[in-house]
C-alpha cells in the first residue's frame, strides 16, 4: 500500500457520522453561553451604573447602601439572577476547558463533578445570603444602625 492509497484526497466527502439519539448537551451548553453572556452584560452594566454612577458614586457604597439594596425585592432578584447566570456560565466554561485539555477520563470526570458541586454550593450559599440578609442581626446600642433597627422592630 502506498501513501497515496492510504490518504484521502483533500476535500473529498467524508462519510456522515452516525447520529446519536437524545439531547445534545454540548449544543445547549453552547447556546446557553451565548444567551447568558448577553443577559449578563445587561445585568452587570446595570449593577455598575446603579452602584457607581447614581447617588454619591463609589464613596456612597457602604453597609447601609448594600442593606438598602438587599431590602428591595427587585434588587434581590436582580442580584440573584446575576449570581446564578454568572456561576453557571463560569462553571460551563470551566467544564468545556476541562473536557478539552484533560485526557485522563477519570481525572476529567472528577474535575467536572468538582466544578459542578462547587458551582451548586456557591449558588445555594449566595441565594441564601441575598434572601435572608438582615442588617439588624448583632446590632448593639453603640452601632450606627441602632436607631434604624429599633424603629423597624
Automatic annotation (TrEMBL):
Q: Tell me where the transmembrane regions lie.
A: 29-54, 74-91, 111-133
In terms of one coarse class, where is the protein primarily found? membrane
> Which is a Gene Ontology cellular component entry for this protein?
membrane
Q: Which InterPro entries match?
A: SQR/QFR_C/D, SuccDH_FuR_B_TM-su
What is a single Pfam family found in this protein's UniProt entry? Sdh_cyt
Top-rank taxon, per record:
Bacteria
Q: Where, subcellularly, is it found?
A: Membrane
Name any one GO molecular function.
Answer: metal ion binding
Q: Give the keywords, sorted.
A: Heme, Iron, Membrane, Metal-binding, Transmembrane, Transmembrane helix
What protein is this chain from?
A: Succinate dehydrogenase hydrophobic membrane anchor subunit
Species of origin: Microbacterium limosum
Amino acid at each position: 500500500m502506498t501513501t497515496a492509497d492510504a490518504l484521502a484526497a483533500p476535500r473529498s466527502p467524508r462519510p456522515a457520522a452516525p447520529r446519536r439519539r437524545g439531547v445534545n448537551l454540548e449544543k445547549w451548553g453552547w447556546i446557553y453561553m451565548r444567551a447568558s453572556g448577553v443577559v449578563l452584560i445587561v445585568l452587570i452594566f446595570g449593577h455598575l451604573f446603579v452602584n457607581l454612577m447614581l447617588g454619591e458614586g463609589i464613596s456612597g457604597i457602604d453597609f447601609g447602601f448594600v442593606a438598602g439594596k438587599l431590602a428591595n425585592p427587585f434588587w434581590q432578584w436582580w442580584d440573584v439572577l446575576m449570581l446564578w447566570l454568572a456561576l453557571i456560565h463560569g462553571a460551563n466554561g470551566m467544564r468545556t476547558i476541562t473536557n478539552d485539555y484533560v485526557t485522563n477520563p477519570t481525572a476529567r470526570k472528577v474535575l467536572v463533578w468538582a466544578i459542578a458541586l462547587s458551582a451548586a454550593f456557591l449558588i445555594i450559599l449566595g441565594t441564601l445570603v441575598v434572601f435572608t440578609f438582615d442588617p439588624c442581626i448583632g446590632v448593639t446600642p453603640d452601632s450606627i444602625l441602632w436607631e434604624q433597627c429599633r424603629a423597624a422592630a
